[in-house]
Amino acid sequence: MRILKRDRRATLPRIAADFNDGASTSVSVRTVQRTVINMGSQSRRPTRVPFLTARHKALLLSWARQYHWTVDDWKHVAWSDESRFQLYRTDAYVRVWRQYH
């Protein structure tokens, strides 16, 4: 449980490898899975959080109105939020451990 609280994105094979490093006994991934579930945790997809709040949007709008840009001016802006890039790891299979009640 200490490992899950320290790193909620820890995978079962990594938890099993942590136990097996330097230990005299070997623990399987399935044993770790059963133990984690019996302790009251479950693996879930992380919740998505909106990137812009209403306050952020209002600040952006006030900034845009401050400079009195025309539509033609805005056409020359490169928007960084239109494309998403992952350089080092994919988040397609990211899961987090949560306590259930």
Describe this entry's structure for a reader.
This protein has helices at residues 2-6, 12-20, 29-38, 54-67, 71-74; strands at residues 41-44, 96-99. Helix 2 crosses helix 3 (29-38). It is 42% helix and 8% strand. It is built from five helices and two strands. The chain starts with a helix and ends with a strand. The radius of gyration is 23 Å and the shape is elongated. The mean pLDDT is 82. With 101 residues, the protein is mainly alpha-helical.
Task: Itemize the secondary structure elements and their pairings.
Elements: H1 2-6, H2 12-20, H3 29-38, E1 41-44, H4 54-67, H5 71-74, E2 96-99
Antiparallel strand pairs: 1-2
